[in-house]
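#data-curation
PF: Archiving a pair of folding outputs for the training set. Convention for this channel: one message per protein, sequence first, structure tokens after, nothing in between. First:
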Amino acid sequence: MELPQRRHGWLRHAGLYWLPPLLWMAVMFGLSTDTFAAEQTGGVLWYVLQELAPRVTYDQYTLLHFLIRKAAHLTEYAILACLLLRAFRAGAARPWHWRWATLSVVLVALYAGLDEYHQACTQSRTASVSDSMLDTAGGVIALALLWRNRRKPAGRDRHSLGGHDTRKEDAMRIFVGNLAWSTTEDEVYQLFAPYGEIERTQIITDRETGRSRGFGFVEMPNRTEANAAIAELNGTALGGRTLTVNEARAREGDERPRRPQQGRQPRW
């Protein structure tokens, strides 16, 4: 039973996160054919301009056509970069990681090069290194904007009153026990996601081996949603095991003040 479940989970993961960028690549491949060459799009643009602005000059039309096509290049690859970042993130609670961004840029650059090679094989289009660099720049700009937006501090008026953060008091840390060794943080995230916003998922691993220790934690900012998740998920099965889900408690040893260490006394 475990193998079919894992296979189903992998297919669901691939379809949810990797199918969108693959489909967008297919759309971009179609846009790189002769059907969307400059001669074809130029005729459509000229017809539209003649209807909307009959006095437009040929030089103005040429400049506008050039700018529209270059903007389309930037937009196509900006969308691709965002979809790739989403695929590498794969539902993780952490919104950003430089490894995800780096891999996304690498794939964007590779596809940009392959796209120019494809255009070189068509009848009415030619390859251009500058276009490939422009395509890659579109992906980099999109990721840079996402990174900048991630670094913006949240508005204080939403969760704070008079400088007092009410969101921290409302948050809950949930203990998830009896996890299968193969369970990932993404699977835990997907399990809790239907019940509300999740700030972080964490599976505790052994320091030496890196192997899961069979338990983890989920942090939810809304206590009501967290209680609903606990009520529904405690005792449910994941990866062939029955989960133990409850509010995480601090260990007694963490709350008691430690006795200051003193020098060792002689026995005599």
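PF: Second:
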Amino acid sequence: MNRMLLTRSLRTVVTLWVSLALALSGGCATTTAPQPAAYATLEAVLIDAQRPARPDELAQVRVWRGGALVATQPRMALQQGDLVQTGPNAYAVLHYEKAEVLMRPGSQGRVGSLTDVLGEVFAKIRGAFSVETSFVRAGADGTAYLVRGAPDGSAAVIVFDGAVTLSSRVGAWPAQSLPTGATAFCPPRGGVPQTHAASAQELEQTRAWVERIEKVVAPRTNYGAVVGVAAIAVLIGAILGSRGGSSSGGTGASPAGGSSTGAVIKARPNP
């Protein structure tokens, strides 16, 4: 009798443990960790700024997430912290809620807004947004501008719409305001920026690649930032027209590629 009772008790305990294990297993199988919300969209990958990349060419723009490489797809969702890098022939178009960022080949930026920037990017903004390198912040609230850096820490900024305020993060020089059509070259190691009216050549150098992208990638109509900023040809036309067609201003020094200097750049729209 005792043996029968013991056997029944053991069977009951085993049944309870199995039921509990199955319940826990089922719960784990149906529970997934929440995915971070999309912060931006990789709207397009272009080859030579002339055509969309073929499936076998998408890897020319790399997306790193948490230290791991993620397969690149057109219009893929980008999460805050994703690092986007463009290859030697690849251009990337990033769409945010109120901004569009164009990246040249050999550039990189980390999503949110766009930080850790190396190389050259062109931003069209309608709302609060910033582009940052290791030392430079280009904060904007309705403008269009180019940020370009060099490995030695120098940087150049060209304003195509609105106004940009340049200030030193280390207090090396007083804040300076850059109006539409102005450019500034920031020497390495915190040197005082050299500012002048951007020459027609400087403006056209940016137009040459930005306009090609604008012709290939149509702006999304639900992005107020993109629709609200005129095409670069119109912006340049307005700049030169305000000078009576003159290309006044020296060419200045223009670094290409790499990181930027210890300056903070803030922008505001035209009144």
